[in-house]
Amino acid sequence: MKTKLVSPTEENIKKACALIANGEVVGVPTETVYGLAADARNGDAVKKIFNAKGRPQDNPLIVHISSLKMLDDVVGSVPYDARILAKHFWPGPLTIIMPKGKCISNVTSAGLDSVGVRMPSNEIARKIIEMSNIPFAAPSANISGKPSPTTAEEVFEDMYGKIPLIINGGMCETGVESTVVSCLEQTPIILRPGVITREMMQEVLHKRVDVAKAVIEGVGKDEKILSPGMKYKHYSPNAKIILVKGKFENYKNFVESKASAGVYAMCFDEEKEFLNLPSISYGKKDDPKSQAHKLFDVLRTLDKLNAKLVYVRCPSPEGVGLAVYNRLIRSAGFSVIQV
Ligand code: TXA
Ligand code: MG
Description:
This protein has 339 residues and is of the alpha/beta class. It has 10 helices and 16 strands. Helix 1 (10-21) crosses helix 5 (123-132).
Protein backbone atom coordinates (compact mmCIF):
# COMPACT_ATOMS: atom_id res chain seq x y z
CA MET A 1 0.00 0.00 0.00
CA LYS A 2 1.19 3.52 -0.78
CA THR A 3 1.06 5.89 2.20
CA LYS A 4 0.35 9.57 1.49
CA LEU A 5 1.39 12.29 3.95
CA VAL A 6 -0.79 15.35 3.22
CA SER A 7 -1.59 18.80 4.59
CA PRO A 8 -4.93 19.40 6.37
CA THR A 9 -6.79 21.08 3.49
CA GLU A 10 -10.58 20.83 3.27
CA GLU A 11 -10.19 18.38 0.39
CA ASN A 12 -7.75 16.14 2.26
CA ILE A 13 -9.94 16.12 5.35
CA LYS A 14 -12.84 15.02 3.13
CA LYS A 15 -10.60 12.21 1.81
CA ALA A 16 -9.82 11.14 5.37
CA CYS A 17 -13.55 11.04 6.20
CA ALA A 18 -14.31 8.97 3.08
CA LEU A 19 -11.56 6.47 3.91
CA ILE A 20 -12.77 6.08 7.50
CA ALA A 21 -16.37 5.66 6.28
CA ASN A 22 -15.08 2.92 3.94
CA GLY A 23 -13.49 0.96 6.77
CA GLU A 24 -9.90 2.18 6.27
CA VAL A 25 -7.36 3.53 8.78
CA VAL A 26 -6.08 7.13 8.69
CA GLY A 27 -3.26 8.78 10.67
CA VAL A 28 -4.66 11.89 12.39
CA PRO A 29 -3.24 14.55 14.69
CA THR A 30 -4.73 15.13 18.14
CA GLU A 31 -3.62 17.59 20.83
CA THR A 32 -1.83 14.76 22.67
CA VAL A 33 -0.14 12.45 20.14
CA TYR A 34 -0.99 11.25 16.61
CA GLY A 35 -3.64 8.52 16.40
CA LEU A 36 -4.60 5.76 13.96
CA ALA A 37 -8.30 6.33 13.35
CA ALA A 38 -10.95 3.85 12.18
CA ASP A 39 -14.73 3.57 12.64
CA ALA A 40 -15.16 2.35 16.24
CA ARG A 41 -18.40 0.55 15.28
CA ASN A 42 -16.80 -1.46 12.48
CA GLY A 43 -14.87 -4.47 13.83
CA ASP A 44 -13.17 -5.26 10.51
CA ALA A 45 -11.91 -1.68 10.21
CA VAL A 46 -10.62 -1.68 13.80
CA LYS A 47 -8.79 -4.98 13.22
CA LYS A 48 -6.70 -3.13 10.63
CA ILE A 49 -5.48 -0.78 13.38
CA PHE A 50 -4.35 -3.72 15.52
CA ASN A 51 -2.54 -5.21 12.51
CA ALA A 52 -0.83 -1.96 11.51
CA LYS A 53 0.49 -1.43 15.06
CA GLY A 54 1.18 -5.07 15.91
CA ARG A 55 -0.92 -4.43 19.01
CA PRO A 56 -2.02 -7.24 21.36
CA GLN A 57 -5.72 -7.98 20.72
CA ASP A 58 -6.59 -7.68 24.41
CA ASN A 59 -5.63 -4.00 24.66
CA PRO A 60 -8.74 -1.82 24.08
CA LEU A 61 -8.83 1.39 22.04
CA ILE A 62 -10.12 4.85 22.96
CA VAL A 63 -13.23 6.16 21.17
CA HIS A 64 -13.08 9.79 20.00
CA ILE A 65 -16.23 11.91 19.75
CA SER A 66 -17.04 15.52 18.90
CA SER A 67 -20.28 16.17 20.80
CA LEU A 68 -22.20 15.11 23.90
CA LYS A 69 -24.93 13.79 21.62
CA MET A 70 -22.39 11.33 20.22
CA LEU A 71 -21.43 10.35 23.77
CA ASP A 72 -24.92 8.99 24.41
CA ASP A 73 -24.55 6.76 21.34
CA VAL A 74 -21.22 5.19 22.32
CA VAL A 75 -21.80 4.49 26.04
CA GLY A 76 -24.45 2.50 27.89
CA SER A 77 -24.80 5.18 30.57
CA VAL A 78 -22.91 8.25 31.77
CA PRO A 79 -21.89 8.00 35.44
CA TYR A 80 -22.40 11.20 37.49
CA ASP A 81 -18.65 11.85 37.95
CA ALA A 82 -18.05 11.28 34.26
CA ARG A 83 -20.56 13.97 33.37
CA ILE A 84 -18.84 16.50 35.64
CA LEU A 85 -15.38 15.64 34.32
CA ALA A 86 -16.61 15.89 30.73
CA LYS A 87 -18.18 19.27 31.43
CA HIS A 88 -14.91 20.66 32.82
CA PHE A 89 -12.25 19.03 30.70
CA TRP A 90 -13.77 18.32 27.27
CA PRO A 91 -12.79 19.01 24.63
CA GLY A 92 -9.31 18.07 25.84
CA PRO A 93 -6.84 15.36 26.84
CA LEU A 94 -9.03 13.33 29.23
CA THR A 95 -10.29 9.80 28.50
CA ILE A 96 -13.14 8.58 30.70
CA ILE A 97 -13.90 4.87 31.08
CA MET A 98 -17.67 4.25 31.14
CA PRO A 99 -20.07 1.34 30.47
CA LYS A 100 -19.86 0.41 26.78
CA GLY A 101 -22.66 1.21 24.35
CA LYS A 102 -24.05 -1.43 21.96
CA CYS A 103 -22.84 0.27 18.78
CA ILE A 104 -19.16 0.01 19.76
CA SER A 105 -17.49 -3.07 18.29
CA ASN A 106 -16.11 -5.67 20.71
CA VAL A 107 -12.87 -5.43 18.76
CA THR A 108 -12.57 -1.78 19.87
CA SER A 109 -13.22 -2.60 23.54
CA ALA A 110 -11.16 -5.83 23.35
CA GLY A 111 -14.15 -7.71 24.70
CA LEU A 112 -14.56 -5.54 27.83
CA ASP A 113 -17.99 -4.22 28.79
CA SER A 114 -16.50 -0.75 29.31
CA VAL A 115 -15.19 1.81 26.84
CA GLY A 116 -12.77 4.74 27.09
CA VAL A 117 -14.13 7.92 25.47
CA ARG A 118 -12.60 11.31 24.83
CA MET A 119 -13.49 14.49 22.97
CA PRO A 120 -10.27 15.84 21.43
CA SER A 121 -9.66 19.58 21.23
CA ASN A 122 -7.48 19.39 18.11
CA GLU A 123 -9.34 21.16 15.27
CA ILE A 124 -8.41 18.61 12.61
CA ALA A 125 -9.46 15.60 14.69
CA ARG A 126 -12.76 17.31 15.55
CA LYS A 127 -13.43 18.23 11.93
CA ILE A 128 -12.93 14.62 10.84
CA ILE A 129 -15.40 13.34 13.46
CA GLU A 130 -17.95 16.08 12.69
CA MET A 131 -17.77 15.78 8.91
CA SER A 132 -17.90 11.98 8.88
CA ASN A 133 -20.29 11.78 11.84
CA ILE A 134 -18.29 8.70 12.89
CA PRO A 135 -16.92 8.09 16.40
CA PHE A 136 -13.40 6.90 15.65
CA ALA A 137 -11.30 4.47 17.64
CA ALA A 138 -7.71 5.65 17.81
CA PRO A 139 -4.68 4.38 19.63
CA SER A 140 -1.37 6.22 19.39
CA ALA A 141 0.02 5.87 15.85
CA ASN A 142 3.26 4.06 16.75
CA ILE A 143 4.33 0.48 16.23
CA SER A 144 3.32 -1.22 19.48
CA GLY A 145 5.98 -0.74 22.17
CA LYS A 146 7.65 2.29 20.52
CA PRO A 147 7.35 5.90 21.76
CA SER A 148 4.10 7.55 20.63
CA PRO A 149 4.50 9.86 17.61
CA THR A 150 4.14 13.61 18.11
CA THR A 151 4.83 14.57 14.48
CA ALA A 152 3.33 13.34 11.19
CA GLU A 153 6.82 12.40 9.95
CA GLU A 154 7.18 9.98 12.89
CA VAL A 155 3.83 8.40 11.98
CA PHE A 156 5.10 8.04 8.42
CA GLU A 157 8.25 6.25 9.67
CA ASP A 158 6.21 3.70 11.64
CA MET A 159 3.21 3.31 9.32
CA TYR A 160 4.72 3.54 5.85
CA GLY A 161 3.07 0.93 3.58
CA LYS A 162 0.50 0.00 6.23
CA ILE A 163 -2.12 2.77 5.98
CA PRO A 164 -3.27 4.87 3.00
CA LEU A 165 -3.27 8.40 4.45
CA ILE A 166 -1.72 10.58 7.17
CA ILE A 167 -2.93 14.12 7.81
CA ASN A 168 -0.07 16.42 8.83
CA GLY A 169 -1.19 18.74 11.63
CA GLY A 170 2.31 19.74 12.81
CA MET A 171 3.77 18.88 16.19
CA CYS A 172 1.27 17.87 18.90
CA GLU A 173 0.74 20.42 21.63
CA THR A 174 0.70 18.19 24.74
CA GLY A 175 3.14 15.48 23.68
CA VAL A 176 1.97 12.72 26.05
CA GLU A 177 -1.26 10.75 25.73
CA SER A 178 -4.50 11.68 27.47
CA THR A 179 -5.14 11.03 31.14
CA VAL A 180 -7.23 7.85 31.47
CA VAL A 181 -9.67 7.85 34.41
CA SER A 182 -12.17 5.13 35.19
CA CYS A 183 -15.58 6.25 36.45
CA LEU A 184 -16.97 2.72 36.78
CA GLU A 185 -16.66 2.66 40.59
CA GLN A 186 -17.64 5.01 43.43
CA THR A 187 -14.12 6.49 43.59
CA PRO A 188 -12.70 7.52 40.22
CA ILE A 189 -9.26 6.03 39.55
CA ILE A 190 -6.49 7.24 37.22
CA LEU A 191 -5.20 4.39 35.08
CA ARG A 192 -2.80 6.54 33.04
CA PRO A 193 -1.65 10.03 34.12
CA GLY A 194 -1.60 12.96 31.68
CA VAL A 195 -1.77 16.74 31.74
CA ILE A 196 -5.22 16.68 33.35
CA THR A 197 -4.01 15.85 36.85
CA ARG A 198 -5.50 14.15 39.89
CA GLU A 199 -5.58 17.53 41.68
CA MET A 200 -7.52 19.17 38.83
CA MET A 201 -10.14 16.39 38.87
CA GLN A 202 -10.46 16.38 42.67
CA GLU A 203 -11.14 20.10 42.59
CA VAL A 204 -14.14 19.84 40.27
CA LEU A 205 -15.50 16.58 41.74
CA HIS A 206 -15.09 17.68 45.38
CA LYS A 207 -13.97 14.15 46.22
CA ARG A 208 -10.95 11.90 46.25
CA VAL A 209 -9.56 10.52 43.01
CA ASP A 210 -7.26 7.48 43.28
CA VAL A 211 -4.18 6.71 41.23
CA ALA A 212 -3.71 3.05 40.25
CA LYS A 213 -0.59 1.55 41.79
CA ALA A 214 0.63 0.42 38.38
CA VAL A 215 1.05 4.09 37.32
CA ILE A 216 4.39 4.29 39.13
CA GLU A 217 5.21 0.64 39.76
CA GLY A 218 5.22 -2.41 37.54
CA VAL A 219 2.10 -4.58 37.64
CA GLY A 220 2.66 -7.30 40.26
CA LYS A 221 2.36 -10.93 39.17
CA ASP A 222 -0.91 -11.70 40.94
CA GLU A 223 -2.40 -8.22 40.73
CA LYS A 224 -5.73 -7.42 39.12
CA ILE A 225 -5.06 -5.47 35.92
CA LEU A 226 -7.39 -2.47 35.69
CA SER A 227 -6.17 -1.39 32.28
CA PRO A 228 -4.69 -3.90 29.81
CA GLY A 229 -2.19 -1.27 28.57
CA MET A 230 -0.45 -1.33 31.96
CA LYS A 231 1.08 -4.73 31.51
CA TYR A 232 2.90 -4.13 28.23
CA LYS A 233 6.39 -2.75 27.64
CA HIS A 234 5.97 0.75 26.32
CA TYR A 235 7.53 3.90 24.94
CA SER A 236 10.85 2.17 24.30
CA PRO A 237 13.47 3.37 21.86
CA ASN A 238 16.15 0.87 20.73
CA ALA A 239 18.58 2.20 23.34
CA LYS A 240 18.52 0.96 26.91
CA ILE A 241 17.07 3.66 29.16
CA ILE A 242 18.05 4.03 32.82
CA LEU A 243 16.41 6.60 35.12
CA VAL A 244 18.84 8.31 37.50
CA LYS A 245 17.62 9.88 40.75
CA GLY A 246 19.73 12.32 42.74
CA LYS A 247 21.29 15.79 42.69
CA PHE A 248 22.66 17.23 39.45
CA GLU A 249 26.29 17.28 40.74
CA ASN A 250 26.09 13.55 41.50
CA TYR A 251 24.40 12.86 38.16
CA LYS A 252 27.12 14.78 36.32
CA ASN A 253 29.93 12.85 38.05
CA PHE A 254 28.16 9.57 37.44
CA VAL A 255 27.36 9.98 33.74
CA GLU A 256 30.72 11.51 32.90
CA SER A 257 32.38 8.43 34.42
CA LYS A 258 30.25 6.27 32.08
CA ALA A 259 31.06 8.21 28.88
CA SER A 260 31.84 5.97 25.89
CA ALA A 261 30.57 5.42 22.33
CA GLY A 262 26.77 5.31 22.21
CA VAL A 263 26.26 6.56 25.78
CA TYR A 264 24.02 9.62 26.14
CA ALA A 265 22.88 11.84 28.97
CA MET A 266 19.23 12.93 28.82
CA CYS A 267 18.92 15.95 31.08
CA PHE A 268 16.95 19.16 31.57
CA ASP A 269 17.47 22.15 29.23
CA GLU A 270 19.37 24.23 31.82
CA GLU A 271 21.87 21.44 32.47
CA LYS A 272 23.02 20.42 29.01
CA GLU A 273 25.87 22.92 28.72
CA PHE A 274 27.46 21.64 31.96
CA LEU A 275 27.80 18.02 30.83
CA ASN A 276 30.99 16.74 29.18
CA LEU A 277 29.49 13.89 27.17
CA PRO A 278 26.94 13.67 24.32
CA SER A 279 23.66 14.86 25.77
CA ILE A 280 20.12 15.74 24.80
CA SER A 281 17.63 17.72 26.87
CA TYR A 282 13.89 17.10 27.30
CA GLY A 283 12.44 20.30 28.72
CA LYS A 284 12.95 22.70 31.60
CA LYS A 285 13.65 21.31 35.09
CA ASP A 286 10.67 22.89 36.83
CA ASP A 287 8.27 22.81 33.90
CA PRO A 288 6.76 19.32 33.47
CA LYS A 289 4.57 20.54 30.59
CA SER A 290 7.68 21.37 28.57
CA GLN A 291 9.06 17.91 29.43
CA ALA A 292 5.83 16.20 28.31
CA HIS A 293 5.88 18.19 25.06
CA LYS A 294 9.40 17.03 24.09
CA LEU A 295 9.68 13.61 25.72
CA PHE A 296 8.63 11.22 22.93
CA ASP A 297 10.33 13.25 20.22
CA VAL A 298 13.60 13.10 22.19
CA LEU A 299 13.26 9.33 22.71
CA ARG A 300 12.85 8.89 18.95
CA THR A 301 15.77 11.23 18.21
CA LEU A 302 18.01 9.01 20.37
CA ASP A 303 17.36 6.17 17.93
CA LYS A 304 18.41 8.36 15.03
CA LEU A 305 21.62 9.18 16.93
CA ASN A 306 22.23 5.44 17.37
CA ALA A 307 22.29 5.77 21.15
CA LYS A 308 22.92 2.46 22.93
CA LEU A 309 22.60 3.49 26.57
CA VAL A 310 20.85 6.58 27.93
CA TYR A 311 21.00 7.89 31.50
CA VAL A 312 17.92 10.04 32.11
CA ARG A 313 17.61 12.67 34.82
CA CYS A 314 14.57 11.63 36.84
CA PRO A 315 11.71 14.18 36.70
CA SER A 316 9.72 15.17 39.78
CA PRO A 317 6.54 13.04 39.78
CA GLU A 318 4.32 15.91 41.02
CA GLY A 319 1.30 17.26 39.09
CA VAL A 320 1.87 16.93 35.32
CA GLY A 321 5.29 15.46 36.21
CA LEU A 322 3.55 12.20 37.12
CA ALA A 323 2.71 11.70 33.43
CA VAL A 324 6.33 12.27 32.43
CA TYR A 325 7.61 9.95 35.17
CA ASN A 326 5.09 7.25 34.22
CA ARG A 327 6.22 7.22 30.55
CA LEU A 328 9.93 7.31 31.43
CA ILE A 329 9.77 4.55 34.03
CA ARG A 330 8.09 2.33 31.45
CA SER A 331 10.54 3.20 28.70
CA ALA A 332 13.26 2.27 31.21
CA GLY A 333 11.53 -1.05 31.93
CA PHE A 334 11.60 0.11 35.61
CA SER A 335 15.42 0.45 35.75
CA VAL A 336 16.07 3.22 38.27
CA ILE A 337 19.30 4.03 40.09
CA GLN A 338 20.10 6.53 42.84
CA VAL A 339 23.34 8.53 42.75
O1 TXA B 1 -4.13 10.76 23.90
C1 TXA B 1 -4.56 9.65 23.65
O2 TXA B 1 -5.30 9.04 24.46
C2 TXA B 1 -4.16 9.00 22.32
C3 TXA B 1 -4.77 9.84 21.20
C4 TXA B 1 -4.57 9.23 19.84
O3 TXA B 1 -6.12 10.10 21.46
N1 TXA B 1 -4.59 7.65 22.28
C5 TXA B 1 -3.99 6.67 23.00
O4 TXA B 1 -4.50 5.40 22.82
O5 TXA B 1 -3.07 6.87 23.75
P1 TXA B 1 -3.73 4.08 23.26
O6 TXA B 1 -4.51 2.98 22.64
O7 TXA B 1 -2.32 4.18 22.86
O8 TXA B 1 -3.91 4.00 24.79
C6 TXA B 1 -5.15 3.67 25.36
C7 TXA B 1 -4.98 3.22 26.78
C8 TXA B 1 -4.41 1.81 26.86
O9 TXA B 1 -3.48 1.75 27.91
C9 TXA B 1 -5.65 0.97 27.17
O10 TXA B 1 -5.33 -0.21 27.87
C10 TXA B 1 -6.48 1.93 27.99
O11 TXA B 1 -6.26 3.20 27.43
N2 TXA B 1 -7.94 1.62 27.87
C11 TXA B 1 -8.73 1.81 26.79
N3 TXA B 1 -9.98 1.38 27.03
C12 TXA B 1 -9.99 0.91 28.30
C13 TXA B 1 -10.99 0.31 29.15
N4 TXA B 1 -12.23 0.13 28.72
N5 TXA B 1 -10.63 -0.03 30.40
C14 TXA B 1 -9.36 0.17 30.84
N6 TXA B 1 -8.37 0.72 30.10
C15 TXA B 1 -8.68 1.08 28.85
MG1 MG C 1 -0.23 3.91 22.90
